Amino acid sequence: MPGVIMDPKSKNGSHTNHDRDQRPNGVNGGSHTSDKMQDKSEARAEPQQNMTPPSPAAPSLSNGKLADHARRENGGNGGPWDVQAQMDLLPQEIIHMTEGYQPLSKFLQRVVQKTHTELINTLSDLEQMPTPASALNGNSATDDSSQENVQKKMRLMNYATSAHESLTKALVITGWSRKAEDVSKLIDIRLHLEAQKQLYTTAIEAMASNKRALHNFRLPNPDFKTALEALTTGKSSWMPDLGYIKPPPLTAKELLRQMEKLNTLLSMRLNLDDYDKIPPQFKNFTIQSGRATFKVPGEFELDLTVANEDPGSQYWFIDFRFLFRPSSSNMNLGIRNYIESRVNETLFTDGLSGCYKYLHELVLTYKIKEFRRQGDNLARSIWTDTLSVENLNRPISIQYWVGRYSGQPMNGKSSSARPSKSWIILGVHSGKVPGRCPSPKDTSRLFIRWFRDFKEVKDPDIKLDDVDISTESLLKTVIGKHIDHILTSIFEKLLAKPLYASRELEISLHISVDDPADSELKVQLTQEHRLSIKIEPMSGRFVLGPVSKQYSQTEFDLNRRSQDPATDGHIYIERLRSMLLTEDLQVRAISVGWTRVNKPGLSQESMAEIVGKEALPTVWFRRPGWEKDWYLVVTQSMGGEKWHLIKTAMVPHTLKKEVLGVGECIKLPIKSVSPITSYSFLSTLNIFTAGVVSHHINAKTLHARRVQHKSVKGKLAKSIALPSIYAKLSDLIPSKNRLSRTGMSWAKDVIKISFQGIEVIGQKPSEATESAISTSVTQASQSSAPVPQAPSVLIPPKSFNVDERSVLVTEARLIASLPKALLNIKDQVDKDIIFNAETASFAVRLRSKVGDSVIPDLVECLVRVERLVEFIQVLDTHKDTLTCDMVSLGKIVFTYQEVSSVSPLDASDAGIDTATKYSAAVDYSAADNTMALMLEGGNPHLRIADSLATILNGSEGLNGVATLLPLTLPVLRALDTMEDAWSAEELSGKGQVIVHARATDSYLIRYSLFPKSPLAASVSFNVKLRSRNSQPWWHVRRVATARNGEPDALEEDLAPLWALSPCPDWKGMRMSGVARNKSIENLLVKLDETVRRFALSGKNLNSAVSAPPPAQVQAPAPQKQIPTQNPRQQQQQQQQQQHQRWQPASNQGQSQARNPHNPHNREVVEID
Description:
Keywords: Activator, Nucleus, Transcription, Transcription regulation. The chain is of the alpha+beta class.
């Protein structure tokens, strides 16, 4: 019983014992203060509780023994026994009620809260009420009786009344709570008394029940008197005679007559009297054997009859049978009697219509219960844990695929989706059609509501067989339609994808109406993987085949993570295809040399512009030898695979200064939407991508250099089609396709650049240089120019790192026919260039790292070819004096000798070997297009090598060098001979010769005679190249001295030499001499012999000419081998020891050259 506890400090507002008012007797007989003496404003202190239960042997309070017991308790020393305290103690048998009590403070707090809330609401209502008109006009009349004022007052009065009632109740309860302890005890006593009273009542009822039960066990006393009379006389005198006469039994004819009569009566009533009262469902009846049999197809048969001839009399029940299976054939007698009584009662009240309705509803309920019974049996047998049957009053609910979706999280994220649930409700429909007048033919029927994944399916078109009742068949029908819905939805969503819409991949759907387990969706994921999707009818779980690890994971995801497979089932199929495609692509790509790399930190926005938003995850690959910022990206989607070549670069960004983005993107033109990623395809893709990158980079470089070019469709192999680049040669090379010597074009102004494949390069980890380790995979172009083939090299050990280079071939056609020296260039030196004499064309093979342009190398190579063509033309022009030994794109080697004389003078007297040929090489492989002239050791032209190099890199080029080499060879050889002659021992101290090469066509020969004697003198001779009748002649003359034109002693010795003209190539000019070809060498040797004889003669250079000539001393012949080497020989020997044979030589003996860097200022003088 509820109550209020005054003390709010107690734990639950109640006590656990009844001694709340028990107080100790005070010290030395002191007593406690009464409750009435306490201050009303303070809560009464909680009395000390005695946790010790009272002893069962408590003293009795009767017969005046309490005082004695009290005195004994107090030992005779205390005060009198507190009788009132003892009376306040409740016996242990009385249970203290603690349920329903609440603290008084909580009650008062709630009252205050209620009053405050009502006050706020009242003020809010008053604010919303309209203001009285008097207040608006400024009148403050106290007797304002307007309706607005009255309403506001009524609202205030209602609040005041309600608050007064609440506070009054609080006051009453507060006053009552002061005596709550006494009332609580009274309540406990009252409840105890009621419990005891209930025990008495229960005992009386139990005794009465026992008495009534004993009646069945008592047997009546036998009536011996009546038994004796009945047994002796056959009757009893006290039993009355009713006078009943038993009718005679009917014969067969009478029975037949009665049956025919009943048939007639039934026919007349059903066809005449009650025809309009028969329900449409009872129109199908038969009359036979005195009964009318009404048959409702699929429900029941009812046999009725009549008892009299009155047309208004009721029909009577005879028999009842069910017309559906399974049903009860032998009806229980009790159930039959119940149905009979109810049918007869309904026939009496409602006639045939009411009888039909009653039996129809009975049959419908029976059918529903039969569905329920079969459902329970299925749930307990083969459909365990997958089926749940539940009663919904009369209808039933059958949930199938229980636990198909467990709501597991996907990708580690929590899922708030509830588990999938599908069920059917089998109930009774009234048969009424909305919007149409009721018809007697409208009757109730069984109907099904189908809820698929929490959503009701409108017009499900589920065939319900209520004649042969089978819950399993009904479930198969519903589940079959559910499976049809799921597989059809997945099929339609996949069929809308481009891969299946264009029939690149196959997809087919088979739906079985009879057996849902045979429904199957077949999907071709790739060219090698096919998937079969089925749904197990009982559990609703997906079954993917054939069995594999990848399919098992997708099957798990569909069964555990897909809440609605009809909506998102196709997503898992797409992911499975992407996973299979990625796995096959990665395994095979790595096998053929591709390297799988991670995404290089590109943002999703930059990738979405390329691959699209619907693309599945991308796969990134690279090849060895590619530039680090080039990637092959394969994007997968249901529209097919897209293959892109992407170059990453730093691009500007709105938020940051620069971010890593897509610098260049090239979409590979692969015809197939989803190609078969076989080993051959990936190997061919390597070549194709390298070609596409090379073509793109080369075209971009040509565009940056403003070179006119265009791409023309080409063909590398049957499976690869790459365009070739046709560029304008004159825009590509610095010379504008004009030879510097002739100013004419040396080749047609169009060159072809075509990709020919890739070349595998091996590199040791410890080496920086690369070496070819296998042949190139190039295919020959369809051009007429042959393509250079890469050399075949054995594969090195595994310690080599594999690298790849792209190989491109550039074809060009010359205008003029090729010289013979170019026909065998490939066989001689260079393996990357070949010339075709028939078509006057050449082809050059260029190699570059994939991602690098070959245009700079191509320009350099074309410049070399241009020089090569020009050099060959020059060598062909000077074929009488120069012979080409070796030609390549970077070097040309040739031999030369002096021009043969018309009437050669025998040079054996001078000790000169004129049959020697000298070798020279021109190296033009430098990156800065600088050509270098390389001479072998001992070559006479080492004296003027610097001047020749200047001429070689000047406007005259090799033609100028080729012209000067045979012209200057006799002079330079003679100068070497002169220096060798003056190094003899017998000339020691007599003098020395110093040669100054002022230019290639001007030399100064200075003789220092008697350097250590008072007769020291200096004699100089100039050797210059002059022109006479357009022919080159060397002019030798003595430099004028300071003797005012008077001849000295040396002039006398030189006079015979200046007057000598031994051959057409040597002419004496009285004071000088001219010669050409080999004769200039003889002239200089003779001049040197004359000066040496003069030095040995000891003559004074300053003596008069008339003085008698001294005895002529024979000058020693020039020696080829002498022990002492002159400075020139020592210098040549050092050069040979420090350098290889072919090195650019400089003229260390050249000094005081006259403008050596301007060879065009050579002095040309006509000689008469």
